[in-house]
Amino acid sequence: MDASQLLKGVLDVAVLAVVRDADGYGYDVVRRLRAAGLDEVGDASVYGTLRRLYQAGALTSYVVPSDEGPHRKYYAINDRGRSVLEDSTKTWRTFADTVDGLLTGPAVAA
Questions:
Q1: In a 10 Å sphere around its CB, with 0-12 CB exposed, 13-18 middle and 19+ buried, how is residue 59 labelled?
Q2: Quick one: which of 57, 63, 28 has its CA closest to 43?
Q3: So where are the chain's domains?
Q4: For range 46-66, the mean pLDDT
Q5: Which residues are within 8 A (CB) of 4 and not within 5 positions of it... i.e. 6 or more apart?
Q6: CATH class of 3-104
Q7: Does position 50 have pLDDT exceeding 90, yes or no?
């Protein structure tokens, strides 16, 4: 099974979960997702997801100056984002439980 296709469906919730734990700038979020086991996550996908979640009102942003390069735009979850994350978490758990049940349940006779 192609994990990248599964990742597309859950990237929003994964990004929200990462910034729920701590604010982060684009590459920091990418790094934390990969450290959590989402090795195939692409930089461009995460940057696009951050922008989309920000435009949807689920994230706020602020800029932090850097002595080592360009300023970094940090993203933080807000109340709307926490609500989206909570709803998405419930949906994910229901979906995952259903698929687990199909995979581990008795085989259906054809």
A1: buried
A2: 28
A3: 3-104
A4: 96
A5: 40
A6: mainly alpha
A7: yes
